[in-house]
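Email to the structure team, subject: Nucleosome assembly protein model.

Hi all, the expression group asked for a predicted structure before they design truncation constructs. Nothing fancy, just the tokens so they can compare against earlier work. One-line instruction: predict Nucleosome assembly protein, return tokens.
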Amino acid sequence: MAQNMPTDPTRLGPEGTVAPTPQNTPAVHTLTGSMISRPQIPPTLGEEDEGTETIGSRDAQGLGALANNPAFAQLVQGRLSGLIGRSSGYVESLPTAVQYRLTALKGVQRDHAVLEAEFQKEIFELEKRFADRYKPLYDRRRAIIEGSAEPMDDEVKKGVEAEEEEGESDFEDEDDDEAAADKPARGVKPTDAELAEAPKGVPEFWLTALKNHLGLSELITERDEEALKHLVDVRVAYPADKSGFTLVFEFSAGAQEFFANTTLEKTYLYQDEVGYEGDFVYDHAEGTKIEWKEGKDLTTRIETKKQRNKNTNQTRIVKKVVPTDSFFSFFSPPAPPSADDDDDASIASDLDEKLELDYQIGEDLKERVIPRAIDYFTGRALLHERGAFDGDESDDYDDEFDEEDEDDSGGGASSRALVVIASPLDPSRSSFHTNQTRIVKKVVPTDSFFSFFSPPAPPSADDDDDASIASDLDEKLELDYQIGEDLKERVIPRAIDYFTGLGRLRRRV
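Reply from the structure team: attached below.
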């Protein structure tokens, strides 16, 4: 939680009082304060104090109970959300000359925004030019999947090299010699007899690839699989006269059992102007109308109910068509909220969530699944999905220290002195085996911004053997990289907005 008042003595108001921060409310960032700061070490209780209930301990227990109460947490979050965007008055309290300079800096920022918009449009045009260079590779992939062509020797050779670089299967136990012995050698060309017995191409390639995507797998039902097993290609196209991209799903003749379409498309369109951070802003999506065969609509189901007549006591069967979960609802995207929807906060929020999920799935298909379909088919891509195998980790034990901050600790800005009180009943730590105690001071690392310049080292081979160490290092590396990216992409280009607090508000929105 951000502090309402800064502790920096240089940030003073016109009368010498400490000025509040530009935004006196917690900002909801990708990087939260809890992700950067480690929990404080609790003070040590002496042996004579252990088990003694104090008023403070009761208060702490009461606060802990409230913190775990969902209703209380929701109430606090609602109050804090109401403060977002409100100025604390800090910028307004600055001298006129300083505010005059801030206005000029906003003018410089506007020129930067114009140049950044031009940069993003150039990047998009470059993306479309490279799509033409990718096309022969995707056509070749499709031919192998469909079975209209067999692999060439140079393709197999490169594939073997790729598998050797990846090492053994990520899901295989390295100690399982028996499994390794049963595994066929890489790149061995099948015989004519084996080719004759084998199925054509790679059966259900795209169905398997889509199901191995963490988000898409939740959309695909068992009923959907009967139609999706006839999916032969998924590709990206770009509208000629609009900014955006189109996802094209092409089906074989077997899908005619369900619908008359041979291709289904979903187009995501961008707004004409780029967003605050220079990125294209999603406007809306358009999907193909699916021509379902009678009784084969996978997006609906028949709901059967019995109704009894109160007068005659006779019953009748009433059948009603109702919507149901289906991957094919993806081609009927939600419409952006209207002005009436904006008046109802709950409706607007629900629509925003649906739109965000729909756009994220489209982006994942375009940026991940289509370019790396083979990795999604084999499941290897799952290892690179963020948080795919991360477990909830918590500290099982608290270090028991009495903490005492000292300015003369000699450890610099990134260290602190801890005072450890040795128990007189512990002869190994008492002085001369007497009943005396001693003060032990130790310099240990502490939280500091300047630790940013001492980045964590990537895990070594020894660290990889310890899953907990490797996971902790991965989290630190990811956080360190995210902070660097935020500085590069957000703070430095829009420093004036982060100074005034507008950057925090825009980041949340």
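Residues 96-146 form the longest helix (51 residues). Residues 111-168+201-384 form a domain with the Arylsulfatase, C-terminal domain fold (CATH 3.30.1120.90). Ping us if the truncation boundaries need rechecking.
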